[in-house]
Amino acid sequence: MGKSQHMSSLENWTNGNDASVCADQSPYPTWNEWDAAQRDLYVLDHEGNVVFHENVTGGLPFNLESLVIDLIDQIPADCNPDLVCGEAITCCDGSLFPTTCCSENCDEPMGECGECEDGEVNNDNPCNPWECWGGQWYEIIIDCPEEMGIPCEGGVYIPPAEGECCSICIILGDISGDGIVNVLDLVAMVNLVLSGGYDEVADMNSDGTLNVLDVVLLVGIILG
Amino acid sequence: MLFRKILLLTIITFSFAQYEYSLEDINSSSNYYGENVGTSYFPDQVTLHYFGHYN
Fold first, then answer.
1. Does A69 touch chain B (CB under 8 A)?
2. How high is the ipTM of this complex?
3. What's residue A197's pLDDT?
4. B52 vs chain A: nearest CA distance in angstroms?
């Protein structure tokens, strides 16, 4: 910030640098409002607050650089949570992010890049496992037939076992779960009926109970 | 009551008027040459303002 009557010698003090230079017109309102004196230096933080004001006629303060760096570190990350990003784990500045936007969509880093060995698998969430390729974790999305609306023709979806993601489509009557309906399933069903147990796969008429009617239906299927 | 309003307005005006300006950038080497710059021209940035002139 200079004073208008001295600006003819501007090149002498910019020396080709690209800092903005302004000329305050007489009676120098900016100088007055800032209560500035010749060779006064002000440092403003990102909110426009004056955090440093000193006359630097004797030289720049030794801690000016560290002061500015500290102030820059205080600037909140400029991110947009509504940003549309690619679904791919991306390494940015040494950290892994779940999308190609890295931190620009306000995502938090998932970990450091190159922190896994190829072939390593993280199956904490069976429907969202992670596998390590090239030293980086990649997210695997599993689409289950039931969730995609694919019907289980002639059977019922059985909830997944522990460590598995998708429900399994089991043919009605296939109590053993071996993919075929035969006398083994009949034996298992009779045992269930006699013990008062229940299995959704054995409930041939889907009435919520297991009884002789289900046995008759299963026998009919086995005999063809 | 009127006095209190004027006093409040003066305080607010003083608070927001200080450390602000908007003047033309006259350094032809600057990226903002010809634009009106000032503290609010660089939001969310740390800025340094040096006041100097020839005696």
1. no
2. 0.72
3. 87
4. 5
